[in-house]
Structures are given as structure tokens and as C-alpha cells.
Amino acid sequence: xxxxxxxxxxxxxxxxxxxxxxxxxxxxxxxxxxxxxxxxxxxxxxxxxxxxxxxxxxxxxxxxxxxxxxxxxxxxxxxxxxxxxxxxxxxxxxxxxxxxxxxxxxxxxxxxxxxxxxxxxxxxxxxxxxxxxxxxxxxxxxxxxxxxxxxxxxxxxxxxxxxxxxxxxxxxxxxxxxxxxxxxxxxxxxxxxxxxxxxxxxxxxxxxxxxxxxxxxxxxxxxxxxxxxxxxxxxxxxxxxxxxxxxxxxxxxxxxxxxxxxxxxxxxxxxxxxxxxxxxxxxxxxxxxxxxxxxxxxxxxxxxxxxxxxxxxxxxxxxxx
Length: 321
Description:
73% helix
């Protein structure tokens, strides 16, 4: 089977999701390792500026050839850049100042549900009941994961201003998935990422200057920071976004968004391999619940079955006069 044919199949879509999530999962581990060494706004600006430069030799020619499409879909591309690159990480950082980690983890999992609801509302896309039931199962898995198996902790949650910001990021994630699907129907993946990284970097600059008081503040580029920036630029930005966008193009926004639930357990596994953080039995159990929810949403028993069509009854031979 040729690549041009394979990349449009369901199997390719799921392969793209797996590759995208694997590249994305290390993002949280890298960010945790850089805590206290580099400001988040500085990290985000250098990360995406470097990603744009590294991808330019591969994407600029296609970007220039499709400049008419870029001009036509400039609004959609700006929304993708703002929701997926510039504002998302900045708002998560701001939320972390007043929002508890438990609240952040739980509220951010609303993204798949919001994606499904927006698709149904904006594009009248009909979703089976099993999709919402699967989302509920996966959300339960996330709750078990972040509460360490003690769901009674949910009763002691206190909401702060940061919680509203996290809700905004969940909505941004949903909007990103939907708009990417619309843009990918008319723009190549190379042009889509080139525009996303260029526009995203441009939009980060005023946020960066605001947080630094209008000054240019660069970190001390130690080997650890250099390798982290290279990882974030190549794997957690270029490859992750390309694979995720290709999955959205093939499978659609609601199905792809379901795999957002796999990020916490996979991140835990990556952390175990890289920085030797222990993996607990609750993390394994929660991961299985999350996986069951995703599988049910994708392949669960349909809410109704079509009755097989029976052949028409033969009229008895005879005199009808």
C-alpha cells in the first residue's frame, strides 16, 4: 500500500495518535526538570522560535507555494497558533499560581468532552451515546489517578481564580482540535505547522515582553537546558504537532481528543524510564480504566442496531379479478 493511501486510513490515524502522544508525554517531564532554571515564558519563546527555524528548511517551500491558502485561512491559522502555542502554556503557568494541581488535572480533562460538544453544536456532527459514556469512564480513571485512588478527596476541592483559567485552556484545546480539522482539509500539514510555529512565536513575543517588563532575559545555556530545548523543539513541538494534526485530519476531532486522557499515565511511564519516578499500582489501574473508556468510546456496543432487510414477500399466485 502506498503512503499516500495509507496515511488516510483509520490504522494510520491511530498510529499518528500513538506517535503524537509519545512525543508529547515527555513535555511534562522536561518542564518539571527545568523548573527553577528557566522562566516559562522564556522557555516557550525559545522552544517555538527554535522549532520554526529547524522546520523552515522542510516547510518553507511548501508554505510559500500555498501562500494563497495561508492568506485565505489566516483567521483559522491565527486561532490555531493562539490556542495551541502562544496562550495555552502561558495560561497554564498563570493558573498554577492559584490553582491546585488536583484541580488542574481534573479540569483539563474536560477538553475531550468540550471537543465533542462543540463538534455537535457547530458542525451538527452526530456522536453516539457510547462516546460520552467512554468519556465518563476515562474521566473516572483520571480522577482515580490524580487522587491516588481516594475519590473522597474530590469533596474537599476548593476553587480559585486559576480554575477558570484551566477551564479556558480546556476550551482552547477543544477549539484547536476543531479548527485544525477544518484547516487541514485545505492546507498541507507542512504549511499548517509552518504557519502555526511562525504565528505562534510571533504571538508569544508580547506575552514574553509583558512578563519580563520589556527586557530581553536569556538563561544560562547549560548542557541540560540545551538538550531540553532541542527535545522540546523537535519531539514535543514539530513531531508531536505534525502527528497529532494528521490524526485529527484522518479520525476527526472528537476521536482524537479522547487520547488526551492517555497523557497522564504515559507521562508517568516516561518519567519512570527517564528520571526514575516510581510507578504505583494505582497509576497502572487508573491507566487501564482510562484505556477501557477510550476503547468503549471507539468500539463500544452501538446504541441501536439496524434490522436486517428482509426480502419482499411473494404474492400468492391466483386470480385477482
